[in-house]
Amino acid sequence: xxxxxxxxxxxxxxxxxxALGIPSVVRAGVIVLDAGAGGLTVHPRPDQRHIRPHDVxxxxxxxxxRPQIEYNIEGNPFENLLDYARKLRPQQCTLxxxxxxxxxxxxxxxxxxxxxxxxxIIAEVxxxxxxxxxxxxxxxxxxxxxxAVGADCVELYTEPYAKAxxxxxxxxxxxxFAAAAAAAxxxxxxxxxxxxxxxxxxxxxxxxxxxVAEVSIGHALVADALExxxxxxxxxxxxxxxxxxxxxx
Length: 249
Fold this sequence. Notes:
By secondary structure, the chain is an alpha/beta fold. The chain is built from eleven helices and eight strands. The protein has helices at 9-16, 25-34, 53-64, 81-88, 111-127, 143-148, 159-164, 170-186, 202-209, 219-228, 230-248; strands at residues 3-7, 39-42, 70-75, 92-95, 131-136, 153-157, 190-194, 214-217. Helix 2 (25-34) packs parallel to helix 3 (53-64) and helix 8 packs across helix 9.
């Protein structure tokens, strides 16, 4: 079955807005793993806007206590990603071509341009025993280039599909992503997917791309948790209020 790797960046973003240490990123990791997620993903940016270095190391300890869980550290290999790969040797590193100033990742690698710089980095990460995934646009003709540069898998950048979901352009985008996934598998690559996937658009994509090794989902999952878990949390607080009022009576 496709592995769900939960991206914890938005949990860290909320935590960083106050100096209270809540919500706990590690506690969030424990909760999602106990609920059945098969992996954790972090994207530690140089500006530490969300995931911070101590989070990366603390989550690595959590994963080490659960050998069946995969840890995916993603980021720009020309910024800070290699430091984490060398020290922690996670199961997977996803190489993403984002600028430190970018709001979020919004495109895949241009391997015609970037292959010479990437090839030695990919070789080094693989020598550490770490699987290498390249963040790629869904362009079938580029999948063989990802294999040639030494990648083990590709993560298809799914925002274009997510934007087209529910519109007249959905079937065209699904066909394009299916062709890219088929080209990747033909080149010997595993296929991952991520970016703006949610409960509504996930199943149709997986049905078209099968098999998909991993989906990385963060923003939508955390947003959904505010809805599906918020009512239960309010009930817990009301119970605490009732308990406190009873003790005061």
